[in-house]
Amino acid sequence: MSQWPPHNAEHYRAEVEEILGPVLAAVFAQVELMVFDCDGVLTPGNLVYGPEGEVLKEFHSHDGLGLVIARIAGLKRAVLTGRNSTIVERRCTELRFDSIKLGRFDKCQALQEIWRETGCGPDNTLYMGDDLIDLPAMHQVFLAVTVPDAPTEVAEWCRYQTLATGGLGAVREVTDLVLKATGLYTVALERLLEKAWQPTRTELSSDQDRDPGELTQ
What's the pTM? Predict the structure, then answer.
């Protein structure tokens, strides 16, 4: 095998500084917890309904791997969304999120709960949202991030706006920046080759008829 990881931590830090500048790169390097809105961030934002309600959500595999790598590196991850969704719950459970908050329009209160559950706080939290409902929570954290089609009021407040769109690589863009800025990217890539750190077969399965209880095993 050729050199693995492909580059050392110093190379990746320099890469992030070139993209963000040294000041913002240093801010990204402080992140220990990433909190994500769902629709428009983890997904493209389309709400697909059938006769009995919501039937589909679309997630991107690149985002998924980025979230796996973040977990392997030791970063905390949470989802905080105003909508209830068994699909989102399943996806975030598969990815072993540290906190899952669904149906929560009281995002500031939910954020407090996430901090208690993860042991993190506002000074090391990145919040990634895409619309006005996210602004109150964004005001509570030290680093707010959004996507290209966010409203002006959201974009103006955020320290970083992704190049990729929500649900199509935006989350991966952010997880990579955080991991490279913190120096954890190489740690995660090394661990990714070790079976003990890899996702289980259950987590990678897309079988619709499996027992939901398997997700917690």
Answer: 0.90
